[in-house]
Amino acid sequence: MKFLLGFVFGITLITSCQKKEKEIDLFNGEDLSGWHIDVPQMDTIPDSTNPFVIRDGMLVSLGEPRGHLITDKSYSDYKLLIEYRFPGRPGNCGVLVHASKPRALYQMFPKSIEVQMQHGDAGDFWVIAEDIQVDRMEERRGPKAEWGSTEDKQRRILNLTDSSEKPLGEWNTMVVACVGDEIKVWVNGDLVNYGYNATASIGQIALQAEGAEVEFRRVSLTTIDVLPD
Known about the structure:
Helix content: 10-25%
Strand content: 35-45%
Radius of gyration: 19 Å
């Protein structure tokens, strides 16, 4: 009987772990199901172009008008995998984690922690009405007196290396792992940032339209319990 109970417990544990690590495709390759758009210009100019479109099976941020594509659901304790590229000129974009209150900064950006995708700076943190700590904080963020998470404050935290991106036009893989109050970022397999004591640990995920066209061919999420090495 004890053997049988142990066997059943073991099978249940394995099944639970397998379920826990199931990958979820946030982008289905066909439409924007599971997402909603927040583009301030569309409030006053209803016939504005939607900057988020599906093209050739890819999710494309056209860059203008500026705004965000935001998941309907909130998530915590996960590994987010994104494959992206700038097909034309280099430019700016980002993925926002732990997003909550919309338009919390400059009446545009939701309260969140941004992981930068800007060409040449992939992996920087930008705090948006939230905050996070890193090692060598003053070296990477500037004088402590200038730190802050709102307008006119030093919100940028430099990554550990700017040499991990592929040449313009090639596909990059970014992994953002969030567990509790910690966040790790990899670009093409290189660990480029690690933060802790984040002021948020759950929220929506957002992609930006921020001036440049960006193609996404994969956006997937896997729930995890432990931050990967």
